[in-house]
Design brief:
By secondary structure, the protein is mostly beta strands. It is elongated, with a radius of gyration of 17 Å.
């Protein structure tokens, strides 16, 4: 995966990636993004997010998006045991970031999510955008 740098004549730069829960790219980055870490297999979600935060360069951002709950059409009988959806405040508490971090976005966003059969429904996704101080 690569990105283009518009400020440098469209130069291409590799985008480092890790294997979630097993590896993490070396170095620090202006943007570290963690999307939808909910998993049916064992995953140290808090540990992954702490490593992600540690990789954010001064002045950079950590962007996290995760489901905030089940879709509206998903009945309680369909919920697998032990699934926990992080709350907006709960994730911040779990990260236990040192001083110097600023919360720029802390939001629950409801979006249309039809069922597999096409029935209308909604789902809430939680969004955290955090900026590390200089």
């Amino acid at each position: 995966m690569e990105r283009r740098d518009a400020g440098r004549g469209g130069a291409r730069h590799p985008v480092p990636r890790g294997r979630t829960g097993a590896t993490f790219p070396e170095g620090t980055f202006d943007l570290v993004s963690a999307q939808f870490l909910q998993s049916p297999v064992a995953l140290d979600q808090d540990g992954v997010l702490r490593r992600a935060a540690a990789a954010v360069a001064p002045g950079g951002h950590l962007l996290v998006v995760m489901h905030g709950g089940w879709p509206s059409w998903h009945g309680p009988e369909d919920h697998p045991a032990g699934v926990v959806f992080p709350t907006l405040r709960g994730l911040l508490d779990a990260l236990d970031l040192p001083s110097g971090w600023n919360v720029e976005t802390l939001d629950a966003v409801e979006r249309a999510t039809p069922s597999p059969e096409g029935a209308p429904g909604t789902r809430v996704d939680n969004v955290w955008r955090l900026r590390r101080g200089l």
